[in-house]
Amino acid sequence: MPKTTRRRFLKRTGSGTLAITSLALSSSKLASLPAGARPPSTSTLPKHQALDVPGLHAYPLEHSLPAGEMLELCVSSTARYDLSIRRLGVRVDDPESDIIMAEFRDQPAVPQPIHPGSYVHVAKALSGSMDAFTVECWVRPWMTGRLQGVVSQEDKESDDGFALGLGEDGYVGFFMGDGVSPDEKVVHRTARGVVIKNKWHHLAATWDGREKKVYVNGELAGTWPFPGPFKQGSHPIRLGALSQGGAATHFLDGDIAMPALHAAALSQTEIQERVQLRGLQQPRGRGLLACWPLNEERGDAVKDVSASRRHGRIINLGTWMIGGPSFKAAVPRFGDYKPSRDKDRGHGLRLASDDLYDCRWTVTHRWKIPSDARSGIYTARMRFEFDGKERFYHCTFLVRRAPRKRKSPILFVCATNTWRAYSGTPFAITPVEQKAVWGTGGHGPDRGLPSYCLYRSHAAGQGTYQMGLRMPWPAAGPYVLYGGATDYSHLMRADRFPQAWLEEQGYDYDLVSDVDLHRDPGMLHGYKTVMIVGHNEYWSIPMYRGIESYLRTGGNLAVLSGNTLGWRVSFNEDCTVMECRKVDAPGDQVPKSRRGEAWHSQDGLRGGPARECGIPGCLLIGLDIIGWNHPANPRNFGPYLVERADHFLFHHPEKSGLKAGDAFGWAGEGRMPMANGHEVDIRLSTFAALQSEPSPEGGIVPPDPKGIVRIANGVLPWKEGGHAMDYFFRQIQPKTYQGGEMIWWERPGGGRVFNAGAIGSGWLLHLDPKWAAVMRNVLHHFGVRKV
Prior knowledge:
CATH superfamily of the largest domain: Class I glutamine amidotransferase (GATase) domain
Low-confidence stretches: 1-42
CATH class of the largest domain: Alpha Beta
Strand order of the largest sheet: 32-28-33-35-46-45-42-39-40
Number of helices: 11
């Protein structure tokens, strides 16, 4: 009777079946793709467990392109579909007004999998004979409900290698392969509960040629006989994963620090010394096979400091700047804390089984944007059937002016960072109805697929600190709602209203994304007016400095946005990943007890609210956010009331007909829509008047910048519900119906700002002729004339 090897044991018991994606699609699949498809970028990915994504999903490689460039569209679909490329028309909710630029009918189904899960891949494996061994690693698990790899060089279908892992209910497992034995002979497990979630543990597994031992925090947790031999095999080393069929799987949901391998069995005394060092000092000695201090704090390269040079590469990013076991993360909110000066901070890397920031899908369609295409918001609209029902998927992208075309008077900045921030369910099944409500966390259940955003944590509870741009973003669709009963939107559709109004009125404009502004802040110069619209909440330092420079040189800024400049973001070098570490305000992803994790990996600077990161909105645009209310409740909305009826914006060159106390920015008494609702912004002096408790230690409410004139005040019925805050994001109960403040500001440092202080301000331009007259006056005084 043949021996029951580990491989045969797995096959006999039926365990270990999983889907695996190879390095490239088969030739038959490539042949089924539309003409011009290119090989998938998964060719750069080591073999990795794959997940199927039912339905239709898509993203452009670049979500903003100049006229004359090539749109590259990546589609995954389990059904045939019709595709049309459209420039969205002037009737916001009517696709019949769209301009159809190109059509591709009856496209074949092209299912493309995804490969979530972050870990460190080390190609150079252990080799040679070995009569003693130790693997050690600090780990802080985010969950303990399943099998997870910590440090491994193994495969579930092989009888050699080693693995240190965690199992259900917090046991530690230690595998050493002898080349012949099944799991029950070579996999040993501690008692359950020796590891608990959200606490750092030092794990050490040793073998002295006779016995295997596992230590947790320096204490012996298990001993088992194992005479060897130890067969390492040729598998790659993985930090934070195991392997099956050559593919990475069983990803760790946890933080790791100072993993190391030794060609010796460390004694309990030596292990306890390692525990006392709390991950701050690298192990030394001739027997060191590998050590990864994880002190890079950015990028995907991980250095081995041993002589063996077993350097690694992070797959699917992971998260840097979390500190190590020695880190006291509850750093002060206000002060001069800097990670580089904290000698006890240490280093760690956070891993997640659902980390995914680039689908790496094949380009399925290419379309050359005409060189004379008008700048605007475009969509790839796909009609398909799923579950027997017709559906329409919209993949949004922007077209900028051609590089050699003369600048228009207006630069219109779309709030694409916010569209991305709310993209919590990139693989949601497309709703049947044209208009559907997408909440802060997305639409529908996660279905076992990555479903996180800057308002929704990872599946195991890790806060979301970054978002990938090469991912589907259906939340940025043209008909996505945020309030069903009110027909209210705050993402792309919020930007569409002022954009369509400009076109209806005959104004010429160029349109760009937040990322375009981040990449080239100097693009602002030469425009008579820059318009910030919708829900432009997420700003990078280059965006802020660009607007600041533009204003200093006499520029004009029109803000039809609310919760503008709420959070700081940064981008990696190729602008494919957006980082944001939200802390100390509602919606935070960094708990206050871990405030020290708020420093960005991409630039090393403090993250969180923009006003606490050196880029306060009130000093740039005059206002900052007071809070929010329920966007689906019509009673939570209100208009503006005129305060400075003598102000020229109400009279010149066009008479608005508004008098002191008149309401505007609404559809009429008791009728939706109304401009003030969801999120609105106020002046610093108004914050000070509303504050009900002393400022926190180190916190100061600055005075209003000089020159701000409030010409109208918004009405927001807080008694109907909502969450109003003081300047320090502490909840207050306003005694008035304080809504967004409409201001005119001739800045002493240069430039002029008109700020309507509400996300819904652009929503009403089509419906309220008096408000539209005020806005035309604003543009007139900013030097803009109709075509």
